[in-house]
Amino acid sequence: MLSKLLKYEFKATARIFLLTYGALVALALVNAGLITLRTTSSALSGSSLYGLATTLMMMLYGLAAVAVVIVTLIIILVRFYRMLGDEGHLWFTLPVTATQHILSKLIVAFVWMIASLVVVIASVALVVLPTAWYQHLGSVGSSWNALVAQGFNPGAWTVVVLALLVISLVCSILEYYAAMAIGPNLLKSRLGGSVLTYVIFYFALELINLGVLMVLSFGVSGKFSNINFAISDTGMLSTETASAINRLVSTTSLTVGVEYLVLAVVFFCLARYFMTRKLNLA
What we know:
single chain, mainly alpha
C-alpha cells in the first residue's frame, strides 16, 4: 500500500514541480544567452538598454530560484496539512496505517527537496557557464590533493556533509509533521495550534543545540588544547595537526548527526502517536 501512496503523491505533485523547474531552467538559459552576447559583442556591452534588460532578467531569475525553494516547502507542508484536515475523512478510511501515511509524505517531500536543490544549483551553473567557470575545476582538484598530502581526509568530510544534509532535511520535515499533528490538540485553531507547536519545538531545539555545543566545546578544548596549529616554512601543517583536525571533524559531525537522528525519531513517534491516538480532523 505504501507504493500506491507514493505513486499518488508523486503524481499529484509532479506537475507543479516540473513547471517550476522548467521555468527556472528557461530563465537560466536566457540569462546565459545574455551573458554570452555581452562577452562576444562590444557594442552590446556598452548599451544601456542591454544593461537594463540583463539586470531585469537576472533579478527575475533570482526571484524564480527563491520561488522554487518556497514553493517546494509550501507544497510539502500543504500536502500533509490537508491530510489532517477535511481530506483526512477520506485518507483515514483507507486501509493504511499512520506510519505509511507519514512515510509516503516524508519520502516524496525529501525527493522533491533534493530535486529542487539540485535544479537550483544546476541553474546557477548554467547561468555562469559563459564565464567558463569549469576551467577552474583543476585548481579545486589541486587543492583537494594538497589537503590529502597534508594528511587531511576531504573525501570523508564530503560524505559527512552529505549525510548530515540528509539527516537534517528528514529531521526538519518530521518536525513540521509533528507540529501539524499536535496542533489541533493544542488550540481550537488547527493552523494556530500547528504554528504554536512549531515555535515550541524551535525554542526547545535551540536549547538542545546550545547544550550539545557546550558539551562539544568542553570536550574539544580538552582533547585539542595541546595541538600546535602553526604552519611550517613549507606552508604545511604537521601530520599530528591534520590528524587532530580530522578527529575534530569526525567527533563534531558524529555528535550532531546522532542528535538530529534522535530528534527525527522523536518527531516521527510524536506524529505517529497523535495521528493514531489523538487524531483531530476538526
